[in-house]
């Protein structure tokens, strides 16, 4: 019906009563465009990012537990963990299952991801991208470190941070063919869109996985990222939001101006890990920025960030808010960068 009406409008505008070859070519082109837009129209009423973050209607924030379940399973069932466990889960009475044919678990390194679909009559799908591998002796983790160095995830301090972690950036040349992470992520999302044209789709991930989700998002495919890796060189899609521990993402924002796109939602007044407890709370006062500007504090800041960045903390923070034990995160575009 939609295509038929659009074609009639096209004919009315051209005033064509007889279709010449050129007119037929134009209509064929219009058909292709409309067919491409069709899935986007069907998905337009998909995952309501703003509604979930504002818990509107009440209970909507609990939908984020689907995303944390998907990310946790992606971490645990891909390399290097590869734990044998069920890839099915249930949240608020809705069952979800993994689609093995769309998963990414490469032999050496690159983008790792899993795709989950709901079994509801109005189907939804989640693409969950895995975050950074943290075992430097593994080749997979070395590939991740090469990519982070390439995108300068710590801005001008990226090379120094790599050295502090004991990583040799000269080893990256042999992995150059694996470092097109955002292209790999975009290709996966494109495959999912084609395979599941009627599903309402949302992208998610933690750390590097969060950045990949944001880079692959669009107006009809939103992304919810948990503490996404910052990158000034990465193009980010439209409907995106980040959830962060203030220390975790505050440190990112210092090293990389405009570290995140869209609003950043902070879990405020959490119990912070010991390395962070001696530091002033980010975004609260200017002494935080002054402290960051002291070169001698880099190691302490990295210890704080590493502790605050752990995925189990984010799972716990989302669960506490969803269960009513903690207040909603506070969202603002201002939290995506630290002002001067």
Automatic annotation (TrEMBL):
Entry-linked InterPro entries: AB_hydrolase_1 (IPR000073), AB_hydrolase_fold (IPR029058)
Domain AB hydrolase-1 as annotated: residue spans: 177-318
One Pfam family of this chain: Abhydrolase_6
SUPFAM superfamilies: alpha/beta-Hydrolases (SSF53474)
Protein name (database record): AB hydrolase-1 domain-containing protein
Keyword Signal tagged: yes
Alphabetical UniProt keywords: Signal
Gene3D superfamilies cross-referenced by the UniProt entry: alpha/beta hydrolase (3.40.50.1820)
Domain of life: Eukaryota
Record's signal peptide: 1-16
